[in-house]
């Protein structure tokens, strides 16, 4: 039985070794997995990014969120230049391991536009409406 089936059928409190789970994750052809950052106390969805194995390990080891920048082809330590860091509270995997949910403590805006989150474009009545102003 594969690890995802074992986790699916597991009772609360059962555990699997982290290394085995990471090895079994369905990384895409570029070695990446989707990562969603959510503010731990409010539940606000902040952003979506990508992680490779190194970024995930660094995040888990340091508690400071690190992503993989597809445009720069390099590790991206959130807030490294802006100061708007994400401190990891808890990491979770979805049921088949193809997405990581990062419960974080966001310091400053999450979006590079200065908005609190990256989801400020609402699709409404046949148009896209900007619903959040950047922070000044």
Automatic annotation (TrEMBL):
<dbReference type="GO" id="GO:0004636">
    <property type="term" value="F:phosphoribosyl-ATP diphosphatase activity"/>
</dbReference>
<keyword id="KW-0479">Metal-binding</keyword>
<feature type="binding site">
    <location>
        <position position="95"/>
    </location>
    <ligand>
        <name>Zn(2+)</name>
    </ligand>
</feature>
<dbReference type="GO" id="GO:0000287">
    <property type="term" value="F:magnesium ion binding"/>
</dbReference>
<comment type="pathway">
    <text>Amino-acid biosynthesis; L-histidine biosynthesis; L-histidine from 5-phospho-alpha-D-ribose 1-diphosphate: step 3/9.</text>
</comment>
<comment type="similarity">
    <text>In the C-terminal section; belongs to the PRA-PH family.</text>
</comment>
<feature type="binding site">
    <location>
        <position position="118"/>
    </location>
    <ligand>
        <name>Zn(2+)</name>
    </ligand>
</feature>
<dbReference type="InterPro" id="IPR002496">
    <property type="entry name" value="PRib_AMP_CycHydrolase_dom"/>
</dbReference>
<dbReference type="Pfam" id="PF01502">
    <property type="entry name" value="PRA-CH"/>
</dbReference>
<comment type="function">
    <text>Catalyzes the hydrolysis of the adenine ring of phosphoribosyl-AMP.</text>
</comment>
<keyword id="KW-0963">Cytoplasm</keyword>
<keyword id="KW-0378">Hydrolase</keyword>
<dbReference type="GO" id="GO:0004635">
    <property type="term" value="F:phosphoribosyl-AMP cyclohydrolase activity"/>
</dbReference>
<dbReference type="GO" id="GO:0008270">
    <property type="term" value="F:zinc ion binding"/>
</dbReference>
<protein>
    <recommendedName>
        <fullName>Phosphoribosyl-AMP cyclohydrolase</fullName>
        <ecNumber>3.5.4.19</ecNumber>
    </recommendedName>
</protein>
<dbReference type="GO" id="GO:0000105">
    <property type="term" value="P:L-histidine biosynthetic process"/>
</dbReference>
<dbReference type="InterPro" id="IPR026660">
    <property type="entry name" value="PRA-CH"/>
</dbReference>
<comment type="pathway">
    <text>Amino-acid biosynthesis; L-histidine biosynthesis; L-histidine from 5-phospho-alpha-D-ribose 1-diphosphate: step 2/9.</text>
</comment>
<feature type="binding site">
    <location>
        <position position="94"/>
    </location>
    <ligand>
        <name>Mg(2+)</name>
    </ligand>
</feature>
<feature type="binding site">
    <location>
        <position position="98"/>
    </location>
    <ligand>
        <name>Mg(2+)</name>
    </ligand>
</feature>
<comment type="similarity">
    <text>In the N-terminal section; belongs to the PRA-CH family.</text>
</comment>
<keyword id="KW-0368">Histidine biosynthesis</keyword>
<comment type="subunit">
    <text>Homodimer.</text>
</comment>
<dbReference type="GO" id="GO:0005737">
    <property type="term" value="C:cytoplasm"/>
</dbReference>
<keyword id="KW-0028">Amino-acid biosynthesis</keyword>
<dbReference type="InterPro" id="IPR038019">
    <property type="entry name" value="PRib_AMP_CycHydrolase_sf"/>
</dbReference>
<feature type="domain" description="Phosphoribosyl-AMP cyclohydrolase">
    <location>
        <begin position="47"/>
        <end position="120"/>
    </location>
</feature>
<keyword id="KW-0460">Magnesium</keyword>
<feature type="binding site">
    <location>
        <position position="96"/>
    </location>
    <ligand>
        <name>Mg(2+)</name>
    </ligand>
</feature>
<keyword id="KW-0862">Zinc</keyword>
<feature type="binding site">
    <location>
        <position position="111"/>
    </location>
    <ligand>
        <name>Zn(2+)</name>
    </ligand>
</feature>
